Design the sequence.
């Protein structure tokens, strides 16, 4: 087929070397595919965990500042004071209640949210944010404990009033062990409840700590503002993943080198005959590179999906099962795929370089005499 495509015959001989020994070829593809899967895992694991840690909206920390109304304080006074601050870009108001479920010894929390939380940056890690009365976003760890899944409807009471909630999203909530719902959902069970907490997102140019200090100085005993103060340092993880990638690349080079060298040793007689028929050293090199390149392309086609599958299993089926977290598993864009394939081919050709040079220098008479 390669000859029909107009390519030189020695490329076809390299491809034939793959077909001649299908079992060994499959074993080689499997070994290199395992290396490519590990490379894919290493390339996507770091960015996935980095995005998870820094995506504050999925774990309930989209706000920069949290303002708590003091007991006995006036909600209207708090709102009036906050409305005078031009540094605030977004704000939502919340309040919580106890959600008692039949058969559960401990009550869960249900937080009513007044305002556009999605615009502030809150979102579900899995599923979607609530959009109608009766819909809820649930703590993923709590959902795991209770065996609740997306789409399930749960039944409970708030202050003796029945409240049915349909779980439309899961989030890695570190503040609420229970549900987040629209304010209208909570108000239906507790019509006299008023928001007692304000979540604020500040404009980018504003110093969070200076804003908190200024607000508390003016608020007196009316309320207390706290700065979330969250920063994520991914340097240790990035270094670990980088070291793992380097080791995997080395293993891929060594594995490809050994596989190609073994293949050439098995074909010493064939290569010697081809040299007596006039095949040049450059043609032998092209034949070896074709053999190694075909195996690598096949291994990459298997290894990249396998690496993404490994990441899903390790993060959500491994770490997620233990911790209850739900993580958006990273995917490879076209640029990343091209880089991985190009890198795999470069590694292959590097590993095949020495066997190719050795094949070019074969002493024909000695080889044929030994055969």
Sequence:
């Amino acid at each position: 087929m390669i000859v029909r495509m107009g390519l030189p015959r020695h490329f076809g001989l390299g491809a034939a070397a793959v077909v001649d020994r299908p079992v060994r070829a499959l074993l080689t593809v499997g070994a290199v595919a395992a290396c490519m899967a590990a490379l894919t895992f290493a390339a996507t694991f770091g960015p996935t965990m980095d995005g998870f840690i820094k995506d504050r909206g999925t774990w309930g920390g989209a706000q920069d500042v949290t303002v708590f109304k003091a007991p006995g304080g006036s909600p209207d006074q708090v709102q009036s004071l906050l409305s005078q601050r031009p540094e605030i870009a977004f704000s939502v108001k919340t309040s919580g209640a106890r959600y008692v479920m039949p058969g559960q010894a401990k009550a869960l929390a249900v937080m009513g949210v007044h305002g556009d939380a999605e615009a502030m940056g809150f979102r579900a890690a899995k599923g979607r944010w609530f959009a109608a009365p009766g819909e809820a976003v649930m703590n993923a760890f709590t959902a795991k404990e209770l065996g609740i899944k997306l789409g399930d409807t749960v039944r409970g009471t708030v202050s003796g009033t029945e409240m049915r909630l349909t779980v439309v999203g899961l989030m890695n909530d570190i503040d609420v062990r229970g549900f987040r719902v629209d304010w209208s959902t909570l108000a239906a069970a507790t019509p006299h409840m008023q928001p007692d907490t304000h979540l604020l997102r500040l404009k980018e140019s504003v110093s969070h700590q200076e804003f908190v200090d200024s607000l508390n100085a003016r608020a007196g005993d009316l309320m207390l503002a706290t700065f979330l103060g969250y920063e994520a340092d991914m340097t240790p993880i990035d270094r670990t993943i980088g070291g793992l990638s380097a080791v995997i690349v080395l293993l891929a080079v060594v594995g490809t080198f050994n596989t190609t060298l073994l293949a050439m040793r098995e074909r010493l007689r064939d290569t010697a005959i081809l040299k007596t028929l006039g095949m040049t050293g450059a043609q032998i090199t092209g034949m070896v590179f074709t053999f190694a390149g075909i195996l690598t392309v096949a291994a990459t086609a298997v290894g990249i999906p396998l690496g993404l599958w490994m990441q899903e299993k390790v993060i959500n089926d491994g770490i997620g099962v233990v911790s209850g977290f739900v993580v958006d598993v990273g995917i490879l864009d076209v640029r990343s795929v091209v880089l991985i394939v190009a890198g795999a081919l470069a590694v292959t050709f590097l590993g095949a370089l020495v066997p190719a040079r050795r094949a070019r220098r074969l002493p024909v008479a000695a080889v044929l005499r030994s055969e």
Summary: The radius of gyration is 31 Å. The mean pLDDT is 79.
